[in-house]
Specification:
It is built from six helices and no strands. The protein is mainly α and 150 residues long.
């Protein structure tokens, strides 16, 4: 992303997400997704790479869902600081869990990569990554449900 593109995106994010907890939740998820893709770059085994790439394809669209939740939350309960708007605490909690689950998914992908390179145990490691990726999606679905019910 070029300098000016990044600056424009930053202004758009400020306008839509604010600078508080909703922006932080969105940015954390985006960083977790970036980290997962960085791990993919180092996978030497083609089979492991293909399996992890398929999971990356499933994880990628989740960022837009997180963005929609965060933009909607910012519109209904603006946040410019670190205080979580009380009515949307369950939404923020679910987004935080999704960010944590994505971070552990990236960690599991790194371990699957190492296991495959060292001991040929990639299939078990990839299954662990898959289970963790499912938790990410479940947490986002929970955030969407919580937002709809508030």
């Amino acid at each position: 992303m070029g300098f000016f593109t990044a600056a424009r995106q930053g202004r758009k994010d400020d306008a839509e997400l604010g600078t508080g907890v909703w922006r932080r939740a969105h940015d954390r998820f985006r960083r977790g997704l970036d980290r997962y893709h960085q791990i993919l770059e180092g996978v030497a085994d083609d089979d492991v790479y293909n399996q992890l790439a398929r999971l990356a394809n499933d994880l990628g669209p989740l960022l837009e869902r997180v963005r929609v939740v965060c933009v909607t939350a910012q519109a209904s309960s603006p946040s410019e600081g670190l205080d979580i708007p009380g009515a949307l605490t369950p939404v923020h909690r679910a987004l935080s869990r999704a960010g944590n689950a994505l971070a552990t998914t990236a960690e599991a992908a790194a371990m699957a990569r190492l296991d495959g390179e060292r001991w040929g145990l990639a299939s078990a490691g990839v299954e662990n990554v898959r289970r963790r990726a499912e938790l990410v999606e479940e947490d986002i679905a929970d955030a969407e449900r919580q937002l709809a019910s508030s």
